[in-house]
Structures are given as structure tokens and as C-alpha cells.
Design brief:
Elements lengths: L19 H10 L2 H22 L5 H23 L6 H20 L5 H4 L30
Length: 146
């Protein structure tokens, strides 16, 4: 058929919303290996940060940060529930849930710089412009040329 443009797209696969190739890329970007270590670290530091900064933050911003912490916790729970024996259906359902939670997280804006500043390249909570760094060892630091 002419609808297959040589991208390995099969109309019988996928749900029609996301092209299978894009879904595969998103599954890799939103995988436990990529997201979990940084999210877990931020999630563990968030309660103390919120307590320390509660008085200095406007109420609406404080509530946004509390909601971010809540959503990050839900994402971590999904990754922690992941088992090698999970069926394809379970994996797809988990991916859909994590994708939805990441979109909710993005809608709340960026987490505090003190918490997110240690995030590796690619974990900037911007699903529209994920930074695909070729150097995972960069640690999020950019080289400066003076």
C-alpha cells in the first residue's frame, strides 16, 4: 500500500494517535532506565525543599511544587511496579500512564532549579523538545569557552 512510507508503519499496529515509530522513541525516552534515577532523587529531596521554602513561596507556586512532587511520586511508583514478566499489554498501559503523568508534570512548569539542576541531559520535563544528548556522561553541565 502507498500508506506505508517505508517507515515500518503498519496500520494494524498502534492506536492511530501516535505513529508507532514515534511511540517507540517516546517509550525509550520515558523508560525506567532514563527517567527513574533522576526522578527518584528529586522526589526524595522535594519534601525537605518544600518545607525549607514554604514561607518564601507564593501559595500558588508552593501548591504547584507540591503537585509536581505528588506526580513525580506516582511516576516512580509506576517504575517500581515494573516487572520483567510484565505482558505487552501491561507495559503499554504503564507507558500510557507515565506519558500522561509526564504531560501533567510539564503543565505545572519546571521544578525548582535547586532540585532539577542535577538532572541529566534529556530530563528537562519538556516533552516537546526533549534534549537528546549524545553524551550521557556530561551530567547536565555545558562546557564553557572563555
Amino acid at each position: 500500500r502507498s500508506s506505508d512510507l517505508g517507515l515500518g508503519l503498519d496500520e494494524a499496529e498502534g492506536d492511530g494517535n501516535i505513529l508507532p515509530i514515534m511511540q517507540n522513541i517516546m517509550q525509550n525516552l520515558l523508560s525506567k532506565d532514563v527517567l527513574y534515577p533522576s526522578l527518584k532523587e528529586i522526589t526524595e529531596k522535594y519534601p525537605e525543599w518544600l518545607q525549607t521554602h514554604r514561607e518564601s513561596l507564593p501559595a500558588d507556586q508552593y501548591n504547584k511544587y507540591r503537585e509536581q512532587h505528588n506526580i513525580m511520586g506516582k511516576i516512580c511508583e509506576q517504575f517500581e511496579a515494573e516487572q520483567p514478566s510484565d505482558t505487552d499489554v501491561a507495559q503499554k498501559a504503564r507507558f500510557e500512564l507515565v506519558l500522561d503523568l509526564m504531560q501533567q508534570l510539564q503543565d505545572l512548569g519546571h521544578p525548582p532549579k535547586e532540585l532539577a539542576g542535577e538532572s541529566p541531559p534529556g530530563l528537562n520535563f519538556d516533552l516537546d523538545g526533549l534534549n537528546l544528548s549524545e553524551s550521557p556522561s556530561a551530567g547536565g553541565e555545558q562546557c564553557l569557552v572563555m
